[in-house]
Design a protein that fits this description.
Helices cover 37% and strands 14% of the residues. By secondary structure, the protein is α/β, with parallel strands linked by helices. The protein has a 5-stranded mixed sheet with strand order 2-1-3-12-4. A 4-stranded mixed sheet has the order 6-9-5-10. Strands 7-8 form a two-stranded antiparallel ribbon. The longest helix is centred in the C-terminal third of the chain and has 27 residues.
């Protein structure tokens, strides 16, 4: 999931349901003039620019060093020699002191560093909702109090109407503690990929609904009785993680990666409901059980390793697998080497009972700031620097494409070509022995998320452009409204959530695979109630009603 943009329902619900939210307007978040001790920031301006505004190039007035917690990806290992680091210093007079953490250990190591008080100043790659666990200890900065130091951030929020999105990540004190990536438009990540050449060979049209997926899979099973039409990946550690996430949208529910909390918002009744006990959730599992029982989906696909799933695809033992635009490039590169004429196509999200809808947000993973930053005499410069590198048009273009004339050339707004000898996602038709990520450090997942649609879409392949355009007019499913839990309520909710979520996960897989009959659904719901599901949802609804009474 490291290379996708946009916020999945996983993060939406995590932010909405765990944070204990409180909505206040952007302008009411504090002027940034006072720190936690009520003292002026006048003595914290070392290296800061006196006049720094939207569109200005930030350059510290003296050389500064800021520490950064960096996610190290296995497919483009971090190098000290990256042009990214050198160019950041040249442009801003800031040098990064980098602490790298492997992707496999990222969340655990990040939590340990923050808990021990050893985290760098800038803590990257944090999804909305993940910051909530660090708020009570005051280990991270309430960044919403210092937005006056970040003109580019403020400008994008206002221009793109993101105030409501930011309200969704506010904590109980009214502040937010994460600087998220900001998108002009929702960028869709995952969907179903399928062998387009096989569909053509069998005279089948690409399915546009889940009913059509069922029909197509049946036809493929009849034509190839020894092949499962679909054998999926991304099933570890969450069974069916990606598949249930995007399938859940079609049923207006949450599943897989998207099921981060048990409480989901029902806009029709204006009440919170227990997601894993709703009719929508049951219908989704009923559909999946039918697909498995008819041998249209490989039962191993919900839990097998990615390597096993890809081997089946590349060996012709399956025809469909979950994917995203980035993985589509890899699939097609790899399968072309194994099967002559093979081609994988990324389908627009198939439509289900909920209609042409989409779950998503324009918030993206972003950064936290260590609360100790406020004690530094270069605090203002730090916030100006973060604002330029992560939120200015120039900074976002730089971290995505690199240095004009070296790693890319620009023909106009949104029109970029890779430099001579440079490649990325096979976008350079002339090839190249240097990779934009691996050899230069650009389009690094720590920096290059969000921004104007013209920039975000500038690296799209023709297939991804078609994919994104196909869903541009879909209706966004509503985000849960604010319902701040009080401190004691948060503690109790946390105790109930874990065993309830575990019970949902276990039985979801059992129902799908037929290890538990769906005729026992009512018994399953009763088991959830015995584990306090009704009390959990009642708590969320009372918190919502309390907020409406006080602020509605």
């Amino acid at each position: 999931m490291q290379n996708t943009g946009g916020l999945s329902r996983r993060q939406l619900l995590g932010a909405a349901l765990f944070a204990g939210l409180s909505v206040t307007t952007l302008s009411a978040c504090g002027s940034g003039e006072n720190d936690e001790g009520g003292k002026s920031l006048d003595k914290k301006r070392v290296g800061a620019m006196d006049k720094y505004g939207t569109g200005d190039q930030f350059k510290a007035t003296k050389a500064l060093t800021f520490s950064l917690l960096h996610l190290d990806m296995p497919h483009y290992p971090r190098k000290d020699s990256w042009l990214l680091w050198k160019e950041v210093t040249r442009r801003t007079n800031v040098t990064f002191k980098v602490t790298g953490v492997p992707a496999s250990d990222w969340d655990k190591k990040k939590s340990l560093l923050i808990g021990a008080g050893d985290a760098p100043l800038i803590i990257s790659k944090t999804y909305p909702g993940q910051e909530s666990q660090f708020v009570a200890s005051k280990a991270i900065l309430p960044v919403s109090e210092y937005l006056d130091l970040m003109p580019n951030f403020q400008e994008k929020v206002k221009k793109w109407g993101l105030e409501g999105d930011l309200d969704s990540i506010r904590q109980a004190d009214g502040n937010f503690y994460l600087l998220p990536g900001l998108h002009e438009k929702v960028k869709v990540g995952y969907s179903l990929t399928i062998r387009g050449d096989i569909l053509e060979k069998e005279g089948l049209s690409a399915p546009t609904t889940w009913d059509e997926v069922h029909t197509v899979f049946k036809a493929l099973r009849e034509a190839y009785p020894d092949v499962y039409p679909m054998s999926d990946r991304w099933g570890q550690p969450n069974p069916g993680g990606a598949f249930l996430n995007y399938l859940g949208q079609a049923y207006d529910t949450a599943g897989g990666w998207g099921y981060i909390s048990n409480a989901g918002w029902d806009p029709d009744t204006k009440k919170f409901v227990f997601t894993g006990a709703t009719d929508q959730y049951k219908k989704m599992l009923t559909f999946l059980h039918q697909m498995v029982s008819e041998k249209l989906i490989d039962p191993e696909g919900f839990t097998q390793s990615d390597d096993d799933a890809k081997k089946k695809l590349l060996n012709g033992n399956s025809f469909a697998i979950s994917g995203n635009p980035q993985e589509l490039v890899t699939y097609n590169t790899d399968i072309a080497k194994k099967i002559k004429g093979a081609r994988m196509d990324l389908l627009p999200l198939p439509v289900g009972p909920a209609g042409e809808v989409l779950a998503g947000s324009r918030l993206e993973n972003g950064i936290m700031i260590n609360a100790d930053a406020l004690k530094r005499d270069d605090f203002v410069a730090l916030m100006q620097f973060v604002d330029w590198l992560w939120y200015s048009d120039a900074g976002q273009e730089f971290t995505k494409w690199g240095v004009e004339g070296t790693t890319y050339n620009k023909a106009g707004a949104g029109s970029y070509t890779l430099g001579k000898g440079v490649n990325f996602l096979n976008l350079n038709p002339d090839g190249g022995d240097k990779d934009l990520q691996r050899d230069f450090g650009f389009t690094d997942g720590v920096f290059s998320y969000g921004g104007k649609w013209s920039l975000v879409s500038s690296s799209f392949t023709d297939a991804e452009k078609k994919f994104q355009e196909s869903m541009a007019n879909r209706k966004l499913l509503p985000i849960a409204p604010p319902h701040p839990l009080q401190a004691t309520e948060q503690e109790q909710a946390a105790l109930w959530e874990t065993p309830l979520k575990a019970h949902v996960d276990q039985n979801t897989l059992k129902f799908i695979l037929g290890k538990r009959p769906l005729s026992e659904w009512d018994k399953y719901v009763a088991e959830l109630k015995a584990k306090n599901s009704d009390r959990l949802i009642d708590m969320h609804n009372k918190a919502y009603e309390r907020f409406q009474k006080e602020h509605g």
